[in-house]
Amino acid sequence: MHIPDGLLDTPVCLVTGGISLAAVGYSVHRLKDSLADRTVPMTGMVAALVFAGQMINFPVVAGTSGHLIGGVLAARLLGPWAGCLALTLVLFVQKFLFNDGGLLALGPNVLHMAVIGSLGGYAIQSAVARLAGDTIRGRVIGVVVASWFTVMAAAVLFSVEFAISQATNPDFQLGRFLALMMLFHALIGIGESLISGGVIRFVAIRRPELLYNPPSSSGRPWRQTLAAGLAAALLVALLLSPLASSAPDGLEAAVGQSELPAPETTSLSLLGGYDQLLGDERWETWSVALSGLIGTMVVFGIALVLGRPLDRNPIPAAGAPRA
Amino acid sequence: MPDSRISRARLVPATAFLKLAASLAVVLTACSLSWDSWPAAGALLAVTLAAQALAGMTLSSLARRLALFLPMITLVAISIPLSQGFTASWMQVAGTVILRGLVSFLAGLWLIRVLPFDTLVSALYALRLPAVVVASLAMMHRYLFVLWEETGRLRTARRARCLGRSKRITQWLAGISMVGMLVIRSLDRGHRIHRAMLARGWDGHIRPWP
Q1: Of all residues in chain B, what percent carry a pLDDT higher than 90?
Q2: Residue B176 contacts by C-beta under 8 Å, 6 or more apart in sequence?
Q3: Residue of chain A with shortest Cα separation from B111
Q4: What are phi and psi of A9, to 5 degrees?
């Protein structure tokens, strides 16, 4: 879901916007090295594809439905740099054609879905594909794992940004908010890995040559992507930390809250019942641990099911005749 | 044609930049509002509502959009006390989020109403965004509607093959194969367009608009 305006503080939006701008700018710079004449039509087409793909609903429970996010999928089809640009364009069009998401919040939205989704997602799926072998099967497993982790990483990052925005609210505790967000996003992540993994499996069986093949001349692109992802993560930490330290009340309380007794108002909380349910342990600790454990197991299962019956042959080179 | 700022900016009416700046200013002001500054918030809300009327937004259209937006922002706002407990200030905290979100949403609604998307694309080009980004954006805007129709064809074909309500797992499998088919068709279409562009002299170099 897109972050609307008003949820995050303006400085947080500006900092995340700056990081997004740097990451997307670097992606555009890297695109100049690749096949330039294909970049424009294919990026435009995949951006439109992700947009149209998001319109296809998947029923969940009680009339609610979910849809594809598409960062990892775009990176698998176009590579990390064009994938990041394509997702940025999707978010831009959603804002300026349909008023979906915020204007100032475009910065964090691009960071969470385009930068983490495509650059981070590509780094994860490449690393997994190297472990599982660079075959069609390895790629499907890579997409499943990357989809789950990018959704969870975005949820954690959003919770931290929100905690910084709520620094003036003495009652706000990061741990509790993080637990709620991670619990929801563990489910969203499972949906995303099912859809992305299923779609890549569908395409890989029928038209494997359509998947992105990193150019062999550029050395080890997954290492470069990993390095770029790490640099972006460090940049986020560096640039967000002054905002956090300028408002120590909220964040220090949030970070140190695991030792603090529960606030007296907990009895009013809808989730207060979990305290009794889970004994002395705080519900948020259990919730984070549980969402991590269940999520990892389910994603492992999805990877096994979606990856298993596929052949282990290497991907045919682009342009190679199909059997 | 020299690729200068003047030649780029000439494409775009100056009001486009003013509209963008006005919308940004309202969002920035809205995001600094709090529950205590309700007179200012009320005034800003009145201004954004009046702007809708001036932009020719009908009441039913506005109501339809708010009916989609308000439950969403309320859900987001409620997630704060839901995770933190309903403390003494929960209504102020949630109310501030809804207030800021609503004013910003109305400002955004006004902007998309008064600023056509192709003017916005030209404005981005005038603002010196890389040509590859602007051209990809223009391309995406064009193919959005083509792929929307493609999705409609896939839906019709599915409805024609499947009668009645299907199980949830069948709906998921059908959805996945629908997105997968969309991927194959749109990438093929992208390759065809690329070849057609090459046949017309495209060399990957974007020349400035005349």
Answers
A1: 32
A2: A194, A195, A198, A199, A202
A3: A96
A4: -65, 155
Of residues A5, A45, A93, nearest to B101 (C-beta): A5
Bridge partners, residue A314, by sequence: A135
Q: Are A78 and A117 in contact (CB under 8 A)?
A: no
Which residue in A211, A215, A225, A237 sits closest to A26, CA to CA?
A225
CA distance B114 to chain A (A): 11
Taking CA atoms, A212 is separated from A37, A294, A317, B70, in Å, by 16, 31, 10, 40
Residues of A in contact with B204 (CB under 8 A): 35-40
Q: What is the mean pLDDT of residues B203-210?
A: 66
pLDDT in tens, A3-19: 888 888 899 999 999 99
* Tokens encoding B19: 């509209």
Q: Do B176 and A59 touch (CB under 8 A)?
A: no
Please, is B79 exposed, middle or buried when counting C-beta atoms within 10 Å of its C-beta (0-12, 13-18, 19+)?
Answer: middle
Give, in words, the CATH class of A10-218+274-307.
Answer: mainly alpha
Tell me the two tokens of residue B164. 């009645």
Question: CB–CB of B140 and A97 under 8 A?
Answer: no
- Per the model's pLDDT, the better-predicted residue between A317 and A160 turns out to be A160
Asked if A55 and B151 count as a contact pair (C-beta separation under 8 A), the reply is yes
pLDDT in tens, B2-35: 454 445 656 677 888 899 999 999 999 988 887 7
Chain B residues whose beta carbon lies within 8 Å of the beta carbon of residue A96: 111-112, 115, 117, 120
Task: Report the predicted TM-score, pTM, of the whole model to 2 decimal places.
Answer: 0.82
CA angle at residue A92 from A105 to A193, to 5 degrees? Answer: 85
Retrieve residue A279's tokens: 């004994």
**Which tokens go with B16?**
């486009």
CB atoms within 10 A of CB A109: 29
| Cβ pair B19, B114 in contact under 8 A | yes
Three-state DSSP class for A275? helix
Contact residues, chain A, for B86 at CB < 8 Å: 265, 268-270
